[in-house]
Amino acid sequence: MKKMSEHSVEDIVGIILEDYEDDRIINKTDLYNQPDKNAILDIVRKLMKILYPGYYRDKTYKIYSIRNNLAAAMEDVIFHLSKQIKIVLRYCSVFPDKTDDELEEYSHQIALRFLEKIPKIREYLDTDIQAAYDGDPAAKSKEEVILSYPGLYAMSVYRIAHELLLLDVPMIPRIMTEHAHSVTGIDIHPGATIGKYFFMDHGTGIVIGETTVIGEHVKIYQGVTLGALSTKGGQKLRQVKRHPTIEDHVTIYSGSSILGGDTVIEENVVVGGNAFITQSVKKGMKVSVKEQELQFKA
Hints:
Elements: H1 2-19, H2 37-51, H3 53-56, H4 66-91, H5 100-115, H6 118-135, H7 142-148, H8 150-166, H9 172-184, E1 187-188, E2 193-194, E3 199-201, E4 207-208, E5 213-214, E6 219-221, E7 225-227, E8 245-246, E9 251-252, E10 257-259, E11 264-265, E12 270-271, E13 276-277, E14 286-287
Parallel strand pairs: 1-4, 2-5, 3-6, 4-7, 5-8, 6-9, 7-10, 8-11, 9-12, 10-13, 12-14
Helix pairs in contact: 2-4, 2-9, 4-5, 6-8, 8-9
């Protein structure tokens, strides 16, 4: 029985190896020229320590050595981020004519330019923390928001990824935000543009599409979709404004879907729960679903 089993496994291995032989993308085995997802997620963890030094830092470090700790963390991020950027630039054939040394230097410069954005990222996150605290009576402190709110974690990763995307770094931003999606249930495309004081209450099931533009002081609840009206055009719709614009001081309650690149929700609008909106809404309006009927049957 054992001998027969071993023979069967060898036969199956042979069949699968034959299936590897064509040029389908699923068969790519050049592992060293593909981005390392674990390395990218480790970069996210290290960046969280830089963004929130008193919350994510190694507790064995003393506060008086924060300058040395920060310098070491920055050098670590630069080294590993540069390495991953170099891989994705080559892998995506963005710079096919650059030599290996040129690509390495270019990737290093991108990593440095990204780290220069850290104060800006922290400025925006500080307003997101304030919005969460101000907007949620269940929040006992801002520290609680930082340490426990999945919406803030998703926003932290998004704001990192968004700045990398603005530097034309491919793949890595999406890997980062999809990691946050898997952890929090909140799906924010790194290409979306989101202003200050943004708060996602509860957050689970929120979807924010690539070309969404969101202003300041916007609050959305769980299950909200800011999506495309249709994606049946596939790749022809790339770089087309497919997702809505949400202006300042808008509140969108749970389960609502706002769709379409031409859809603009103007300032101070309140969208009630479970609304389905595919057209623009003028400022100051309150949108609700009329006369929902509950039926009770024995």
